[in-house]
């Protein structure tokens, strides 16, 4: 029995009683014997000699009894080899050979130096199994401690540490026992999809760079206007369509054959394999031909413009400030009204005048160096009457239809100034994320006097908005209490020096439609829903964020801005609300119904058209998004202080550890995290 000290008992009787039993001095260390009370002991050498003379019965020729001395007892163990039932286990014998008493034997309590005996070869062999067991146990313990150390966040409270240990155990058990479940997130018929994509790219690439939708105008698709079925619109077909994957469609031309997008075709909403992702995206060499060159990746810039005279200035800046303008293609959905005849475009003083985005600011014969003159073949402008404008989602849906297999896609607004070499900068930032499913997204920042160096054209402002502050807004009426993250509430943060995010984009929970840079397969996996007329930008962004999350995409704040907003827009599509009464309410029912954010509304009351194409994916559950970031859908409450968790870098340092080995996004099935702001505890269980 081990000595026990009672801090509440000054006499410490328990300790004294043990001293008397074992012959310990009350003035000496409890691990040493007092020489005055050990007269019954033999000298250690004599003890050992007497012990060597003892005869022990053997139960097997393969097993020998090896003994170690204790201060009062001899500890004998049976080892190595098949044993008889009478000899299994361990035995303790006193020096006089009698059976051990009821007292517990302790090893190593004796004082003084113990004389060592050199071990024979057979003695050494006897200790091998014991050493192997000890070292194995020590190795397991060190591995567990290392795992726990890597997963421990020093900033959390002691209570959250207990929760975190529980979460760590669950996470590793889940990862060890559910490999098949994790693998099932990927597309199952990957080889078929991969081969089909190769054929589609070959068909398009044979047309040479650039690929323009103008060449396909005779093959446009007729769709109905989302707010007025009596109005029919002719629009480009998607780059990859359902018929592209038909076995009977080998000889049907250029590939854009059907308006249905590829969500159900590319694995039914499952995660793309790395091979499929690598086969999406074109390259442009210096000689004007396609090439498989890392430095020749093409960029598609998608712009939705509503009566914005600065649109063509933005296009000029895109090409004029790019390092490789020959690798950029721009697609504009230009919603304009008034007098738009080319000969009248130079008269910007007319109040009803909306200049077209594809008309040069100055005639090309006077200034042929303009981007709208030099790169005319790389600019596609889809014009639509402003009276038919029903919000950003339908305009951007058409913009997605204009994508033609570029390696990257950049979605921006129509009144921006870009910094010099912006294309190289943003690609480099994206690559540093190390995540194929990364989307770099932020809000536009108004240009100030010193934001762009006049000599170099580079950005001198190294802070940018991080999208993390959201709340439910509205009056609580049907479809009106909805989650939003307003632009003006997002914190401006400088990336360098933050925990886990220095010199790389910073992981964040939300997405912005004003600026989003990603791989081109985002357009194919998460196309804009056209059946949401009159939906505002704030609602658009929540819908797209949840949908993209369920398809396996991750959102990052860029390291620095590559463009600035010149001024706030002055015209808004909401002026058309009287032309399409009641459309916003029904659209909101559909928008939040598709992502599971209006459970109180009967699902049969909203439009389920093309739900498989424009709904959520199967890589992650939408409920996981809400749980991770403290969004309580039923209660219409979003926990605050989430920005502290995000901007400090803790979100990135914790979540990024579960980035898949092939770089295809963060595996949230391995993350058991729940943000709690009210008690400042982040649950990992």
Topology overview:
Blueprint lengths: L12 H10 L21 H10 L11 E5 L3 E6 L11 E5 L26 H31 L6 H20 L1 H5 L6 H16 L15 E4 L7 E4 L38 H5 L20 E8 L4 H10 L7 E9 L34 H4 L4 E7 L6 H10 L6 E5 L3 E3 L3 H12 L4 E4 L21 E3 L5 E3 L8 E3 L7 E3 L11 E3 L6 E5 L1 H5 L11 H14 L3 E4 L5 E3 L17 H12 L16 H4 L7 H7 L2 E2 L4 E2 L3 H6 L2 H6 L30
Parallel strand pairs: 6-7, 6-9, 7-8, 11-18
Antiparallel strand pairs: 1-2, 2-3, 4-5, 9-17, 10-19, 11-17, 12-15, 13-14, 16-18, 20-21
Report the sheet with the most strands, covering strand number, pairing sense and barrel closure. 8 strands, mixed
Tally the helices: what do you get? 18
Globular, elongated, flat, extended or rod-shaped: what is the shape? Answer: globular
Strand content: 5-15%
Overview of the molecule:
The chain has helices at 13-22, 44-53, 121-151, 158-177, 179-183, 190-205, 274-278, 311-320, 371-374, 392-401, 422-433, 521-525, 537-550, 583-594, 611-614, 622-628, 642-647, 650-655; strands spanning 65-69, 73-78, 90-94, 221-224, 232-235, 299-306, 328-336, 379-385, 408-412, 416-418, 438-441, 463-465, 471-473, 482-484, 492-494, 506-508, 515-519, 554-557, 563-565, 631-632, 637-638. It is globular and about 100 Å long. The chain is an alpha+beta fold. It starts with 12 loop residues before the first helix and ends in a 30-residue tail after the last helix. The strands form 7 sheets. It has an 8-stranded mixed beta sheet, sandwiched between helices. A 3-stranded antiparallel beta sheet has the order 1-2-3, with no helix packed on it. The longest helix is centred in the first third of the chain and has 31 residues, at 121-151. The model is unreliable at 1-116, 150-182, 246-264 and 344-351 (pLDDT under 50). Strand 1 and strand 2 form a beta hairpin.
